[in-house]
Amino acid sequence: MTDQASYLFSTRTSKALAEKIATYYGQPLGKIKVQEFSDGEFEPVLDQSVRGGRVFLIGSTFPPADNLLELLLMIDASKRASAKSITVVLPYYGLARQDRKDQPRAPIGAKLVANLLTAAGATRVMTMDLHADQIQGFFEIPVDHLYASTIFIEYIQNLKLDNLTIASPDMGGAKRAKNYAGHLGAEVVICYKERKKANVVEEMFLIGDVKDRNVILIDDMIDTAGTLCKAADILIANGAKSVRAMATHGVLSGKAYENIEKSQISRVIVTDTIPVRTDLTAKIEVLSCAELFADVMKMVHEHRSISNKFII
User: Where in this chain does the record put each Ribose-phosphate pyrophosphokinase N-terminal domain (predicted)?
Assistant: First the structure.
C-alpha cells in the first residue's frame, strides 16, 4: 500500500475510455483545460495540483498526430508541476507498425515515439498488445505490456463453440494464435499472405484444415479489414462452418466498415482502445478494456505484483 496520492488525466479523444477507467479505479478524472489558438496550436493545462503524486495520463496515440503531441505536452506539464512519477497509459501505441527499418532510408517510428515519451518525462508506460513485443525494449523505463487475451479468452469460452479453430490472418500472428489455441484447447490454422504494398493483399493461402470448423481469426489490429475479409473468404471456401474475427485495436480506416459489412465474417469483436463506431455495421461488437487497465493501474500505484493479469 502507499500514502502517495494518485491523479488520472485524459487526452480529449480518449476521454470516453478514460472515464470508464476512472470509474473502475475509484476516483474521478483530474481537471484539465485546453487552450486553443486560432492557428490550431493548443495548450493542455493541469487544473489542479499534482505535486509529489503519481500521475496517470491516459491517451491512445492514433492519428492525427495531435493526439501524440497532446499527450507529450501533458507529460511535460506534469513534470513541471512536480509530479513524483508519471505513468503514461497508452491503450493503443501509435506508429507501432514502424518497429524496424524494413527498407533503405526508412524511419523506426515506434522507437521515435519511445524516445519522445521518455524525453518528455514519462517514468513508466502501460500499453496493450503492441504490434511487436520487442518495442518494450525501445524504452529504458518500465513497460507494462497487457494483453487483450485476458478479455477475449473468457468471451470465446462463453460462446461454447464446438469444433473451434483459431486462425492467424498472417504468419506474423502465428504465435498469438497458437497461444490462444493452447488456452482454449483448439486447433490452429494460418493464412499466408503476400503484399505488393501496404494495406493491399495480393495473394493468400491457407495452411491447415478448417472443414466444418467454427473459426475465430485473431489479430492485434484491424485497419482497412482487407486482410481479415480475404482470410474469411479463404476459410469459408475451404469449408469453415463460421468465421468470427477478434482484434485488440479497431483502427478501422478507409472502407473498413463497408468491407466488414459485405464480408463473410459473422462477427467482429474489438476493444475500446480506440473509439469505434457501431452504427455503421451491426457486425461489430466492442468489449471494454477499462477494468483491466484500472486494476493494473491500482496495482502499480500500490506496489503490488501484476503478474496475475497476464494470460498471454
Answer: 8-121
Positions marked catalytic = 193
Q: How many CB atoms lie within 10 A of CB 37?
A: 8
Q: Which three cell numbers stand for residue 139?
A: 524504452
Edge-to-edge strand order for the sheet containing 187-197? 200-207, 187-197, 164-168, 214-222, 242-250, 267-271, 284-287
Q: Which cell goes with 184?
A: 482454449
Task: Tell me the pTM.
Answer: 0.93
What angle do the packed helices 66-80 and 109-120 form, to 10 degrees?
Answer: 30
Task: Let me know: does 244 contact 268? Beta carbons within 8 Å.
Answer: yes
Identify the structural domains of the chain with CATH numbers, from first to last.
6-147+290-309 (3.40.50.2020), 149-287 (3.40.50.2020)
Using alpha carbons only, what angle is made at residue 20 by residues 11 and 284, rounded to the nearest 5 degrees? Answer: 95
Which one, of 303, 237, 252, lies nearest residue 54 by Cα? 303
Q: What is the pLDDT of residues 55-114, one digit of tens each?
A: 999 999 999 999 999 999 999 999 999 999 999 999 999 999 999 998 999 999 999 999
